């Protein structure tokens, strides 16, 4: 197995996060995940979201075929982090190799999205509810971003995007949440 040392993942429930699909696979909380179980930090794809980046339906895998299992909604069977509408929340990342960073942005699905359909731009609020600018600085290995989650009810998805400033890529992590 290959472990890339240049990526990231949202941390497990024990440390808040919310837990990403990739981390759930790496922790064994979800089975039949393919390669992502050994490479939860490797969801790296083209930057520029939402104007460019991975194609619709392939956002959770960062457009990488070897991680396509992350794009499968599994009929809502992914573990979900419980949140309350409008609550303050600490989003935590573990970066296996911090990079010069443009920013971290957090997007959430619109009320009424179809949680059984592949994640698309049209399902997301395309204005991030939290942006953490780093302006080219290099973050620590473990970072935390305090923000307020939007008002929602039911099951939703948070797409977190870590944009690297000195490459053409960004890292994409999807986390299932319920309100």
UniProtKB/TrEMBL annotation:
Keywords: Signal. Residues 17-177 form the Chitin-binding type-4 domain. Signal peptide: none annotated. The keyword Signal applies. It comes from the Bacteria. It holds the Pfam family LPMO_10. Gene3D superfamilies: chitin-binding protein cbp21 (2.70.50.50). The keyword Signal applies. This is Chitin-binding protein. It comes from Kribbella amoyensis.
């Amino acid at each position: 197995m290959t472990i890339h040392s240049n990526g990231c993942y949202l941390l497990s429930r024990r440390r808040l996060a919310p837990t990403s699909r990739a981390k759930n696979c790496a922790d064994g909380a979800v089975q039949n995940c393919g390669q992502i179980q050994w490479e939860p930090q490797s969801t790296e794809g083209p930057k520029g979201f939402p104007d460019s980046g991975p194609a619709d339906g392939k956002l959770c895998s960062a457009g990488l075929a070897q991680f396509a299992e992350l794009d499968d909604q599994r009929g809502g069977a992914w573990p979900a982090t419980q949140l309350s509408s409008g609550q303050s929340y600490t989003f935590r990342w573990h970066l296996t190799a911090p990079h010069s960073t443009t920013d971290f942005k957090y997007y959430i699905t619109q009320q009424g999205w179809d949680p059984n359909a592949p994640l698309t731009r049209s399902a997301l609020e395309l204005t991030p509810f939290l942006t953490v600018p780093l302006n080219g600085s290099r973050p620590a290995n473990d970072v935390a971003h305090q923000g307020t989650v939007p008002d929602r009810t039911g099951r939703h998805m948070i797409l977190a995007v870590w944009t690297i400033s000195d490459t053409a890529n960004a890292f994409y992590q999807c986390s299932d949440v319920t309100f």
